[in-house]
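Example 9 (inverse folding). The structure is encoded as follows.
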């Protein structure tokens, strides 16, 4: 599996997102994904499926050291002691001694970022996680976090797909040596109706979703598509046998607008 290197982390370019996956179905999908060749699994405290994700990893038979596991701390646990304690609870649920990447799930203006980052750094120093990073951070927040973190940050995980222009965030990540991890990379399935993606896909005998994922990884962006369908798991991996031309890349970039966001909450930061 191809990887993106960022501040000491080597992150597989395609992972399985597990938001909204629950129970046995979640464990089974994680297990199947790893058997098919996935090596990157993304979960979070807020998803309430860390236990099932851990079960899926164990059931797969793939060595734990070969799987890149990410979890995210929810915003109510951003006080430093609480962050460390809640991370330990995540590890108990996962039945793992460490995760590969621990992220702050959303910015929380109620707790000074410097304090939260000190908790994140402590989690890394204690060996609870190999790497640390952030999620849903704006350009200003990325710059503040990089300046105030005593440990290297390896990524910012944000919504990114052809409908959402993310040039500023992408540039800020690159300037600071962070990888960009794209969640909702196929716009929750909406890309399947995109004329541009279907037209390009026809040239390569690929689906619109496969073209979309290829477009992301050709930017050195990591994509974590979520699916509840086992047949879709293998489709999402079949993107390493073709290359988009510069013109095709540009055509897809042209689909993006700043208003193309799908995931937005009242507590979200003021987006770039």
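The amino acid assigned to each position is listed next.
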């Amino acid at each position: 599996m191809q990887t993106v290197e960022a501040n000491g982390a080597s992150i597989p370019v395609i992972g399985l997102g597990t938001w909204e996956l629950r129970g046995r179905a979640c464990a089974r999908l994680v297990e199947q994904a790893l058997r098919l060749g996935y090596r990157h699994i993304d979960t979070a405290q807020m998803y309430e499926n860390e236990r099932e994700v851990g079960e899926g990893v164990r059931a797969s038979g793939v060595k734990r050291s070969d799987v890149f596991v990410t979890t995210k701390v929810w915003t109510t646990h951003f006080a430093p002691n609480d962050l460390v304690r809640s991370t330990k609870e995540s590890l108990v649920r996962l039945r793992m001694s460490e995760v590969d990447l621990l992220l702050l799930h959303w910015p929380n203006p109620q707790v000074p970022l410097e304090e939260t980052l000190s908790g994140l750094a402590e989690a890394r120093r204690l060996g609870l996680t190999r790497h640390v990073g952030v999620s849903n951070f704006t350009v200003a927040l990325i710059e503040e976090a990089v300046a105030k973190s005593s440990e290297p940050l390896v990524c910012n995980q944000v919504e990114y797909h052809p409908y959402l222009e993310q040039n500023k965030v992408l540039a800020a990540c690159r300037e600071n040596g962070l990888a960009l991890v794209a969640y909702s990379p196929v716009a929750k399935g909406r890309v399947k109706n995109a004329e541009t993606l279907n037209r390009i896909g026809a040239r390569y005998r690929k689906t619109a979703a496969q073209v979309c994922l290829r477009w992301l990884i050709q930017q050195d962006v990591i994509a974590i598509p979520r699916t509840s369908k086992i047949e879709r798991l293998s489709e999402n991996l079949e993107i390493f046998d073709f290359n988009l031309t510069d013109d095709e890349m540009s055509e897809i970039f042209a689909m993006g607008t700043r208003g193309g966001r799908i995931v937005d909450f009242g507590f979200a930061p003021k987006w770039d």
